[in-house]
Amino acid sequence: MTSMRERMLAGEPYIANEPEILADLDRAARRTERFNRSSADDPEGRLAALRELLGTVGEDAWVRPPLYCDYGWQTHIGPRSFVNFNAVFLDVARITIGADVQIGPNVQLLTATHPVEPDPRRAKWEAAQPITIGDNVWLGGGVIVLAGVSIGENTVVGAGAVVTRDLPPNVIAVGNPARVIRTLE
């Protein structure tokens, strides 16, 4: 029989309050708290706490606390990327952040999905779809990226945009829902 955690990792619907999943959430909460309490006076300790929390942290990546995530090990940050204050990474599915990405303050990457029907939602069923952020993307402050979205390399997403669909490489997108307003050379 497939566990709820295995179902979650396979992108299948799962029950969110199963003991194995709750244990993973608790472990991530402790590691997140450790990172968020880390001192700027101890950059090696801060980086160690971040590497303990996340799946991958690339060389010269920089994340400013506080950071919030569900599991941590589902999030992968590429080299030289920067994540500003108050990032929320609901990493029920994999979140892949490429190299040289700039993420503004209060950005949310939300992989979780929930049924619209009330009974399964009440029963704690949910699912998730991965998010992929390409190399050299800039997400302005307050951007929200929804489950299943990929953003192509070199794309800029304006502050406050809500990205509900894939964005191609080399564009500027703004608004809610985000729409392409310009192509970059």
What does this structure look like?
The chain is of the alpha/beta class and 185 residues long. It has a single domain (4-183), classed as 3 Solenoid (UDP N-Acetylglucosamine Acyltransferase, domain 1). 22% of the residues lie in helices and 30% in strands. The chain contains four helices and 20 strands. A seven-stranded mixed β-sheet has the order 3-6-9-14-17-19-20, with no helix packed on it. A five-stranded parallel β-sheet has the order 2-5-8-13-16, with no helix packed on it. A hairpin with a 4-residue loop joins strand 19 and strand 20 (179-183). The radius of gyration is 17 Å and the shape is globular.
Placed side by side, the strands forming the largest sheet appear as 3-6-9-14-17-19-20
How many β-strands, per DSSP? 20
Class of secondary structure makeup: alpha/beta
Please tell me the total number of domains: 1
How is the main sheet built?
Answer: 7 strands, mixed
Give the C-alpha Rg: 17 Å
Q: What is the terminal separation in angstroms?
A: 52 Å
Separate helix tally: 4
Shape, per Cα inertia axes: globular
Question: How do the SSEs run, as a string of H and E?
Answer: HEHHEEEEEEEEEEHEEEEEEEEE
The share of residues in extended strands comes to 25-35%
Percent helix range: 10-25%
CATH superfamily: Hexapeptide repeat proteins
**CATH fold-level name:** UDP N-Acetylglucosamine Acyltransferase, domain 1
CATH architecture name: 3 Solenoid
CATH class: Mainly Beta
Estimate the mean pLDDT confidence.
96
Residue stretches low in confidence (pLDDT < 50, at least 5 long) are none
